[in-house]
Design a protein that fits this description.
Blueprint lengths: L2 E7 L5 H12 L4 E3 L8 E8 L6 H4 L4 E9 L1 E3 L8 E4 L6 H9 L3 E5 L8 E2 L2 E2 H6 L9 E13 L3 E8 L5 H12 L3 E11 L2 E2 L6 H4 L4 H5 L2 E2 L9 E4 L2 H7 L5 E2 L9 E7 L2 E9 L2 E7 L2
Parallel strand pairs: 3-12, 15-17
Antiparallel strand pairs: 1-3, 1-14, 2-3, 4-11, 4-12, 5-6, 7-10, 8-9, 10-11, 12-13, 16-19, 17-18, 18-19
Protein backbone atom coordinates (compact mmCIF):
# COMPACT_ATOMS: atom_id res chain seq x y z
CA UNK A 1 0.00 0.00 0.00
CA UNK A 2 1.90 3.01 -1.30
CA UNK A 3 0.70 6.56 -1.89
CA UNK A 4 -0.15 9.93 -0.37
CA UNK A 5 -3.17 10.60 1.81
CA UNK A 6 -4.39 14.16 2.36
CA UNK A 7 -5.55 14.29 5.96
CA UNK A 8 -7.74 17.08 7.30
CA UNK A 9 -6.11 17.22 10.72
CA UNK A 10 -8.54 17.73 13.56
CA UNK A 11 -7.97 20.08 16.50
CA UNK A 12 -6.01 18.80 19.51
CA UNK A 13 -4.18 16.24 17.35
CA UNK A 14 -0.44 16.51 16.81
CA UNK A 15 1.02 15.48 13.47
CA UNK A 16 2.59 12.49 15.26
CA UNK A 17 -0.85 11.53 16.60
CA UNK A 18 -2.12 11.34 13.01
CA UNK A 19 0.76 9.10 11.96
CA UNK A 20 0.30 6.81 14.97
CA UNK A 21 -3.44 6.49 14.35
CA UNK A 22 -2.95 5.66 10.67
CA UNK A 23 -0.37 3.01 11.53
CA UNK A 24 -3.03 1.35 13.67
CA UNK A 25 -5.78 1.69 11.05
CA UNK A 26 -3.70 0.46 8.10
CA UNK A 27 -1.38 -1.92 9.91
CA UNK A 28 1.64 -0.28 8.25
CA UNK A 29 4.71 1.09 10.01
CA UNK A 30 6.15 3.05 7.07
CA UNK A 31 4.07 6.21 7.41
CA UNK A 32 5.37 9.76 7.69
CA UNK A 33 4.03 13.31 7.68
CA UNK A 34 5.39 16.14 5.56
CA UNK A 35 5.56 18.97 8.06
CA UNK A 36 4.00 19.65 11.42
CA UNK A 37 0.80 21.48 12.23
CA UNK A 38 0.29 22.88 15.73
CA UNK A 39 -2.22 20.84 17.80
CA UNK A 40 -4.57 23.84 17.77
CA UNK A 41 -4.50 24.08 13.95
CA UNK A 42 -6.64 22.04 11.58
CA UNK A 43 -6.50 21.32 7.89
CA UNK A 44 -4.27 19.87 5.21
CA UNK A 45 -1.57 17.45 6.38
CA UNK A 46 -0.18 15.29 3.54
CA UNK A 47 0.79 11.83 4.78
CA UNK A 48 3.19 9.55 2.89
CA UNK A 49 2.47 5.83 3.11
CA UNK A 50 4.71 2.87 2.26
CA UNK A 51 7.34 3.59 -0.37
CA UNK A 52 6.03 7.16 -0.64
CA UNK A 53 7.81 7.92 2.68
CA UNK A 54 10.98 8.24 0.60
CA UNK A 55 9.43 11.37 -0.94
CA UNK A 56 8.67 13.21 2.31
CA UNK A 57 11.70 15.47 1.96
CA UNK A 58 10.45 16.73 -1.42
CA UNK A 59 7.03 17.70 -0.06
CA UNK A 60 8.06 19.82 2.93
CA UNK A 61 9.26 22.81 0.90
CA UNK A 62 5.86 23.58 -0.61
CA UNK A 63 4.10 26.93 -0.15
CA UNK A 64 1.14 26.97 2.20
CA UNK A 65 -2.22 28.75 2.29
CA UNK A 66 -3.88 29.33 5.67
CA UNK A 67 -7.22 30.68 6.85
CA UNK A 68 -6.44 32.52 10.05
CA UNK A 69 -8.49 34.27 12.73
CA UNK A 70 -6.84 37.06 14.71
CA UNK A 71 -8.27 38.55 17.92
CA UNK A 72 -7.29 42.03 19.05
CA UNK A 73 -6.86 43.34 22.59
CA UNK A 74 -4.66 40.68 24.22
CA UNK A 75 -1.21 39.16 23.90
CA UNK A 76 -0.62 35.62 25.16
CA UNK A 77 2.45 33.59 26.13
CA UNK A 78 2.00 31.21 23.18
CA UNK A 79 0.71 33.83 20.71
CA UNK A 80 -2.50 31.80 20.36
CA UNK A 81 -5.68 31.11 22.32
CA UNK A 82 -4.03 28.39 24.41
CA UNK A 83 -1.59 30.65 26.20
CA UNK A 84 -1.90 32.79 29.31
CA UNK A 85 -2.79 36.43 28.82
CA UNK A 86 0.27 38.68 29.18
CA UNK A 87 -0.95 42.09 28.05
CA UNK A 88 -4.31 43.79 27.55
CA UNK A 89 -5.22 46.86 25.51
CA UNK A 90 -8.45 48.73 24.85
CA UNK A 91 -7.11 50.02 21.55
CA UNK A 92 -8.67 48.53 18.41
CA UNK A 93 -7.81 48.96 14.72
CA UNK A 94 -10.25 50.01 12.04
CA UNK A 95 -10.38 48.08 8.77
CA UNK A 96 -8.10 50.53 6.94
CA UNK A 97 -5.41 50.30 9.61
CA UNK A 98 -5.59 46.49 9.73
CA UNK A 99 -5.41 46.20 5.94
CA UNK A 100 -2.43 48.54 5.73
CA UNK A 101 -0.49 46.72 8.45
CA UNK A 102 -1.30 43.30 7.00
CA UNK A 103 -0.35 44.22 3.45
CA UNK A 104 2.94 45.72 4.62
CA UNK A 105 4.04 42.18 5.51
CA UNK A 106 3.89 41.11 1.85
CA UNK A 107 7.22 40.03 0.42
CA UNK A 108 10.34 38.60 2.00
CA UNK A 109 10.51 38.94 5.77
CA UNK A 110 12.64 37.86 8.69
CA UNK A 111 10.54 36.18 11.37
CA UNK A 112 11.67 35.25 14.87
CA UNK A 113 10.05 31.90 15.77
CA UNK A 114 8.03 31.77 19.01
CA UNK A 115 9.41 30.22 22.19
CA UNK A 116 6.49 27.80 22.17
CA UNK A 117 7.66 25.86 19.11
CA UNK A 118 9.36 22.53 18.37
CA UNK A 119 12.46 24.20 16.93
CA UNK A 120 15.66 22.95 18.53
CA UNK A 121 18.47 25.25 19.63
CA UNK A 122 21.60 23.55 20.95
CA UNK A 123 19.70 20.27 21.15
CA UNK A 124 16.79 21.61 23.19
CA UNK A 125 13.27 22.21 21.96
CA UNK A 126 12.16 25.78 22.51
CA UNK A 127 8.77 24.87 24.00
CA UNK A 128 10.48 22.76 26.68
CA UNK A 129 12.59 25.75 27.68
CA UNK A 130 9.49 27.98 27.63
CA UNK A 131 7.69 25.57 29.96
CA UNK A 132 10.59 26.05 32.40
CA UNK A 133 10.06 29.81 32.22
CA UNK A 134 13.18 30.36 30.13
CA UNK A 135 13.31 32.75 27.18
CA UNK A 136 16.37 32.61 24.94
CA UNK A 137 17.44 34.51 21.86
CA UNK A 138 16.25 32.89 18.64
CA UNK A 139 17.77 33.56 15.23
CA UNK A 140 15.31 34.98 12.72
CA UNK A 141 14.35 32.92 9.68
CA UNK A 142 13.78 34.04 6.10
CA UNK A 143 10.15 33.62 5.04
CA UNK A 144 7.92 35.09 2.35
CA UNK A 145 4.32 36.29 2.45
CA UNK A 146 3.02 36.11 -1.12
CA UNK A 147 -0.54 37.34 -0.66
CA UNK A 148 -3.27 38.18 1.84
CA UNK A 149 -7.05 38.29 1.52
CA UNK A 150 -9.25 39.73 4.26
CA UNK A 151 -12.40 37.61 4.65
CA UNK A 152 -14.16 39.40 7.50
CA UNK A 153 -13.46 42.19 9.98
CA UNK A 154 -14.79 43.67 13.21
CA UNK A 155 -12.88 45.78 15.70
CA UNK A 156 -12.35 42.73 17.92
CA UNK A 157 -11.66 39.95 15.42
CA UNK A 158 -10.70 39.49 11.78
CA UNK A 159 -10.36 36.51 9.46
CA UNK A 160 -7.97 36.41 6.53
CA UNK A 161 -6.24 34.05 4.12
CA UNK A 162 -2.48 34.00 3.79
CA UNK A 163 -0.29 32.46 1.06
CA UNK A 164 3.20 32.01 2.48
CA UNK A 165 6.41 30.03 2.31
CA UNK A 166 7.26 27.00 4.43
CA UNK A 167 8.37 27.60 8.02
CA UNK A 168 6.02 30.53 8.58
CA UNK A 169 4.43 30.88 12.03
CA UNK A 170 0.98 32.38 11.61
CA UNK A 171 0.58 32.99 15.33
CA UNK A 172 3.76 35.04 15.27
CA UNK A 173 2.33 37.05 12.38
CA UNK A 174 -0.80 37.75 14.47
CA UNK A 175 1.34 38.74 17.44
CA UNK A 176 3.48 41.05 15.32
CA UNK A 177 0.41 42.69 13.78
CA UNK A 178 -0.91 43.42 17.27
CA UNK A 179 2.42 44.94 18.31
CA UNK A 180 2.48 47.26 15.30
CA UNK A 181 -1.15 48.34 15.75
CA UNK A 182 -0.64 48.78 19.48
CA UNK A 183 -3.71 46.75 20.38
CA UNK A 184 -1.92 43.44 20.99
CA UNK A 185 -3.33 40.36 19.25
CA UNK A 186 -3.23 36.58 19.18
CA UNK A 187 -4.27 33.83 16.79
CA UNK A 188 -7.58 32.29 17.83
CA UNK A 189 -8.06 29.82 14.97
CA UNK A 190 -6.01 28.40 12.09
CA UNK A 191 -6.83 26.11 9.20
CA UNK A 192 -4.36 25.10 6.50
CA UNK A 193 -6.34 24.98 3.27
CA UNK A 194 -3.52 23.96 0.96
CA UNK A 195 0.05 22.72 0.98
CA UNK A 196 1.62 22.70 -2.46
CA UNK A 197 -0.67 20.65 -4.75
CA UNK A 198 -2.74 19.30 -1.84
CA UNK A 199 -6.08 21.00 -1.09
CA UNK A 200 -8.61 20.83 1.73
CA UNK A 201 -11.37 19.87 -0.75
CA UNK A 202 -9.65 16.51 -1.23
CA UNK A 203 -8.80 15.90 2.42
CA UNK A 204 -10.44 13.53 4.90
CA UNK A 205 -10.38 13.52 8.70
CA UNK A 206 -8.99 10.51 10.55
CA UNK A 207 -12.41 10.08 12.19
CA UNK A 208 -14.04 9.73 8.76
CA UNK A 209 -11.23 7.64 7.28
CA UNK A 210 -11.31 5.11 10.11
CA UNK A 211 -14.94 4.23 9.31
CA UNK A 212 -14.17 3.15 5.72
CA UNK A 213 -13.39 -0.36 4.55
CA UNK A 214 -9.99 -0.93 2.99
CA UNK A 215 -11.15 -0.63 -0.64
CA UNK A 216 -12.76 2.78 -0.01
CA UNK A 217 -9.65 3.86 1.89
CA UNK A 218 -7.52 3.21 -1.19
CA UNK A 219 -9.66 5.62 -3.22
CA UNK A 220 -8.28 8.48 -1.11
CA UNK A 221 -4.68 7.57 -1.89
CA UNK A 222 -2.91 9.72 -4.46
CA UNK A 223 -0.13 8.19 -6.60
CA UNK A 224 3.39 8.69 -5.29
CA UNK A 225 4.44 10.95 -8.17
CA UNK A 226 1.49 13.33 -7.73
CA UNK A 227 3.43 15.65 -5.44
CA UNK A 228 6.42 15.98 -7.75
CA UNK A 229 4.69 16.39 -11.12
CA UNK A 230 6.48 19.71 -11.56
CA UNK A 231 9.72 17.77 -12.15
CA UNK A 232 10.88 16.89 -15.66
CA UNK A 233 9.57 13.47 -16.73
CA UNK A 234 11.70 10.84 -18.50
CA UNK A 235 10.57 7.48 -19.85
CA UNK A 236 13.47 5.02 -19.75
CA UNK A 237 14.34 2.47 -22.38
CA UNK A 238 14.62 -1.14 -21.21
CA UNK A 239 18.41 -1.19 -21.26
CA UNK A 240 18.69 2.09 -19.35
CA UNK A 241 16.07 0.95 -16.84
CA UNK A 242 18.00 -2.19 -15.89
CA UNK A 243 21.23 -0.23 -15.56
CA UNK A 244 19.89 2.65 -13.51
CA UNK A 245 18.02 0.52 -10.94
CA UNK A 246 21.34 -1.20 -10.22
CA UNK A 247 23.08 2.10 -9.55
CA UNK A 248 24.80 2.48 -12.92
CA UNK A 249 25.05 6.00 -14.30
CA UNK A 250 23.64 6.61 -17.78
CA UNK A 251 25.34 8.94 -20.22
CA UNK A 252 22.58 11.30 -21.40
CA UNK A 253 24.13 14.28 -23.22
CA UNK A 254 20.89 14.87 -25.14
CA UNK A 255 19.01 15.80 -21.95
CA UNK A 256 18.59 19.55 -22.00
CA UNK A 257 18.87 20.00 -18.23
CA UNK A 258 20.94 22.06 -15.88
CA UNK A 259 23.29 20.25 -13.52
CA UNK A 260 21.80 18.78 -10.33
CA UNK A 261 18.28 18.82 -11.83
CA UNK A 262 15.87 16.25 -10.37
CA UNK A 263 13.96 14.10 -12.87
CA UNK A 264 10.92 11.82 -12.53
CA UNK A 265 11.82 8.42 -13.95
CA UNK A 266 9.37 5.97 -15.54
CA UNK A 267 9.57 2.58 -17.18
CA UNK A 268 6.61 1.22 -19.16
CA UNK A 269 4.66 4.27 -17.88
CA UNK A 270 5.25 3.23 -14.26
CA UNK A 271 6.91 5.65 -11.84
CA UNK A 272 10.12 4.07 -10.55
CA UNK A 273 11.85 6.92 -8.73
CA UNK A 274 13.75 10.17 -8.88
CA UNK A 275 16.95 10.63 -10.83
CA UNK A 276 19.50 13.42 -10.78
CA UNK A 277 21.38 14.84 -13.77
CA UNK A 278 25.08 15.45 -13.14
CA UNK A 279 27.78 16.28 -15.70
CA UNK A 280 25.79 14.76 -18.61
CA UNK A 281 25.11 11.58 -16.61
CA UNK A 282 21.83 10.44 -15.06
CA UNK A 283 21.84 8.43 -11.86
CA UNK A 284 19.17 7.20 -9.47
CA UNK A 285 18.61 9.30 -6.35
CA UNK A 286 15.46 7.69 -4.91
CA UNK A 287 14.44 4.21 -6.08
CA UNK A 288 10.76 3.46 -5.45
CA UNK A 289 10.23 -0.06 -6.76
Amino acid sequence: MDGILIVDKEQNWTSHDVVAKLRGILGIKKIGHTGTLDPMATGVLPICIGKATKLCEYLTNADKVYRCTIKFGKATTTQDAWGEVQKISLKRPDLKMFRNVLMNFKGEQKQVPPMYSAIKIKGQKLYQLAQQGKIIERPSRNITFYDFKILSFTQDVAEFECHCSKGTYMRTLCHDIGEIIGSYAYMSDLKRISSGPFYIQNAITISEFSKLDIEFMKKYFLPMDFAINDLFKLELKEEDYHRIIHGVKIYTPSLNCEDQKLIRLYYLNKFIGIGIFENKFLRIKKLLI
